[in-house]
Design goal:
2 helices; 157 residues; 5-stranded antiparallel beta sheet; Immunoglobulin-like; alpha+beta
Length: 157
């Protein structure tokens, strides 16, 4: 479900010195540019529930404690076209209100504007899930969208 929503509406990337990271309600994606021709044997990646570590050709790229917990058994990394490493982490808390403000604790933080855009995107994703007959991919949102937006669960259908 999230993949199709992201394909139509795009992502809100947080730029970093090594690439970028972005998120959906369910997952956090990390994209790392590496020298062209890099082989998988030159990549060492450890993905834990609370931490991540990535070394390429013996050089540390990312190492630290994640902003929130993830499901370590669901984490994957791939080397694409020998020039891009893509890491996918499954969030433990998959609510729209669980918008990571940084990738690692105190590192690779989204600025206030970017954090706002990420939260808006997760809120629209939540609305899309709750209303599958509608297309929210091009929608704009204003007002109460922090913490996943308004709670309509108490309203009668």
């Amino acid at each position: 479900m999230s993949v199709h929503f992201d394909e139509r509406s795009g992502v809100v990337p947080c730029k970093t010195p090594w690439g970028c990271w972005y998120q959906t309600m369910e997952e956090v994606f990390i994209e790392v540019g590496v020298p062209h021709g890099t082989s998988a044997k030159e990549v060492r990646c450890r993905l834990g529930a609370r931490d991540v570590e990535l070394h390429v050709k013996g050089k540390e790229i990312i190492k630290g404690k994640l902003f929130e917990t993830t499901v370590s058994d669901e984490a994957t990394w791939t080397l694409e076209d020998k020039c891009l490493i893509r890491i996918i982490l499954m969030k433990t808390n998959r609510e729209a209100g669980n918008c990571w403000s940084s990738l690692l604790e105190g590192e690779y933080c989204a600025n206030a504007w970017l954090q706002d855009q990420m939260q808006r995107k997760l809120t629209l994703e939540r609305f899309q899930r709750e209303n599958p007959g509608f297309d929210f991919s091009g929608a704009e949102i204003s007002g109460n969208f922090t913490s996943g937006g308004p709670d309509f669960s108490s309203l009668q259908k």
